[in-house]
Every structure is written in C-alpha cells, then in structure tokens.
Write a structure and sequence with these properties.
Blueprint: H1 3-14, E1 19-20, E2 26-28, E3 31-34, E4 40-43, E5 50-57, E6 62-71, E7 76-82, E8 89-95, E9 100-114, E10 117-125, E11 133-140
Antiparallel strand pairs: 1-11, 2-5, 3-4, 5-10, 6-9, 6-11, 7-8, 7-10
C-alpha cells in the first residue's frame, strides 16, 4: 500500500459523510486520475459534464455542501441537482482557480430543499476548456 492510499483511507474512515468524487454511479465526460492528496480525484471536467451519486441520504435536510477542489484555470460552478440532470437545483457552488490542477482548496455553499434519499447529480458549468478537479464532497446540517 502506498503512503498516499493509507492517508486517503484514514480520511474516509474519519468522516462518514465525505463522499469520494471518483465513487460516482455514472458520469458523462469526466475521467479519474491520481490525486496528490491520496487516492483518486475526478478531472478533465468541461462545461456540461456531470457525475451521478445514487441513494444519498440527506436525513432531515442538508444545509451546506462542501467540495475539495483544484483548478489550474478560472474554475466554474458545481450545480447540485436531485434525481435528474434537469431535476430540482438545491444549490450552486462556485469554484475559482486555485493555482494548479493538484492545488487543493475546500469550497462551501448553502443548499436548500434536500432531504430524504435522492440520486444526486453534480452538473458542471463554466467557460471553455477544463474547469476544475474534485477530490471529495460532503453535505452537512440537518442530519
């Protein structure tokens, strides 16, 4: 086992609410790659691409979305939608450039209208070219 992999395992077991971005149920347009923080991240994200995570349990209702992101460009947005690509928009998380494709920062935004179990669609929007990478994300509040 590599050092980076053990660090990723510790991080996952330390926080049950974190969802590794590469653990998507389905996706369009993205690829996985090795992550400088250990494990993998999703990258090669362009405008209109998306990733789907099935059966996410928001409990009584989540109020916040956090994502660990990196961008060597100007970034873009993560739209958080429920049950389909055109489903209810519960939040939009802006991602700005971090200075490198493996230069990680945590971005947080408010969400509303997410409770119970849903398939979560993260839809990526922005300008031309690659937007950003995502290592992990989590929903907090209302559990």
């Amino acid at each position: 086992m590599k050092l980076g992999e053990s660090a990723a395992l510790l991080r996952i077991s330390g926080s049950s609410s974190q969802i590794e971005a590469e653990s998507f149920s389905s996706q369009s347009g993205i690829q996985t790659e090795n992550c400088s923080e250990g494990g993998q991240n999703i990258g090669y994200i362009e405008n209109g691409d998306y990733a789907v995570y099935n059966n996410i349990d928001f409990g009584a209702g989540a109020t916040s979305f956090q994502a660990r992101v990196a961008s060597g460009a100007s970034g873009g947005n993560i739209e958080i939608r429920l049950d389909s690509l055109t489903g209810p928009l519960v939040g939009t998380c802006p991602v700005t450039g971090t200075g490198g494709w493996q230069t990680w920062a945590t971005r947080t935004c408010s969400i509303s209208g997410a409770s119970g179990k849903h398939n979560v669609y993260l839809k990526f929007t922005g300008g031309s070219g690659y937007l950003f990478n995502i290592n992990w994300f989590q929903f907090t509040g209302g559990r």
